[in-house]
Amino acid sequence: MNNNQQSTMSEFGKVAVMFGGDSAEREVSLNSGKAVLTALQKQGIDAHAFDPSEQPLHQLIEQKFDRVFIVLHGRGGEDGSLQGALSFMSLPFTGSNAQGSAFAMDKVRSKYLFLGGNIPTAPFVVVNKTDEFDCAEILAQLNNKVMVKPANEGSSIGMSEAHSAQELQSAIEKAFEYDREVLVEQWVTGREVTVSILNGKALPIIEMRTTHEFYDYDAKYLSGDTEYLCPAPLDQALTNKIQDIALQAFHIVSASGWGRVDFIIDENQQPNVLEVNTVPGMTETSLVPKAAAAEGINFEQLVTSVLKSTL
Q: Most buried one in 64, 110, 127, 199, CB count within 10 A?
């Protein structure tokens, strides 16, 4: 490491890599956090593990941390609450601010923002736990096949598809186990792709091909047969269009720094935004590192680039 690199590394001071937590995505976060921590330490950065489910946040001040690399997925880490607390403590942190994190995490509010910004997204209905709803009517409105999602979960947790009123009732009840508000989205048949964003730039698109009906939790983390094509085999015009829409969607929810925007491309080659992720998976085999690698950025360079945004 040359003197310039050493001075940059020391500029970071003492870094808390925050991972674990107590959300439904704890296991994924533990894997991501360990990979980020190792990559930072390998470069001589004074980085330490910090699990907020085991350590109160005031220890960040007591232990004299200078900045925080957030690798907490899901509630508590990705929904703006942690970002608000760190802002209050005047501690710089990676990724989006409290507002951007909260909007991106909330699938229902994101949808309204996409509509307002003319960003293409599938038709939907919102169901509240306290409201009465008619499953047959919702299905008829959404072309008789839907995807049901809790408003505030990630990693496809609590999600299921439905083709009949009975299936929809069960799917909504399952989603209510995770949230009081549920998004019922018209099913779109097509190709699933994702665009990683790093410091204002869209990285090469990845296409995910799975034998599952959709890119669910098993396809993401457990199944060994998901194919990842990067750069995705799309023509240049469509590639440019998807990357442009990804940046628009990212900005409209007030996201910043780094993240990922997921799409499904329908049978008419129209990309539909599914959601924005502000703290995506960060193991060496996760989607953002795959996209960065296609751009010639290795994992250590990627995590350092994300951390640099806090300076």
A: 110
pLDDT value of residue 1: 58
Domain range for 76: 3-94
Number of structural domains found in the chain = 3
From the list 23, 160, 277, 286, the catalytic residue is 277
Average pLDDT over residues 64-87: 95
Q: Is 311 inside any structural domain? A: no
Active site residue 25: yes
Distance of CA 95 to the CA centre of its chain: 11
Where residue 90 sits, what CATH number does that domain have? 3.40.50.20
Q: Which residues of 299-308 are buried (b: 16+ CB within 10 A; e: fewer)?
A: beebbbebbe
* Known active-site residue 281: yes
pLDDT value at position 213?
61
Contact 203, 195 (CB under 8 A): yes
Residues 44 and 75 in one domain: yes
Q: Are residues 113 and 226 in the same domain?
A: yes
> What is the overall mean pLDDT for the chain?
92
Asked if residue 23 has pLDDT above 90, the reply is no
262 is catalytic: yes
Question: Is the pLDDT at 144 greater than 90, yes or no?
Answer: yes
Residue 259 bears catalytic tag: no
Q: Are strands 206-209 and 227-229 parallel, antiparallel or unpaired?
A: antiparallel
- Kindly state whether residue 99 falls inside one of the protein's structural domains: no
**Of the listed 160, 262, 272, 286, which one is catalytic?**
262
The whole-angstrom separation of Cα 257 and Cα 308 is: 10
Measured in whole angstroms, the distance separating CA 114 from the mean position of its chain's CA atoms is 16
From the list 221, 284, 300, 309, the catalytic residue is 221
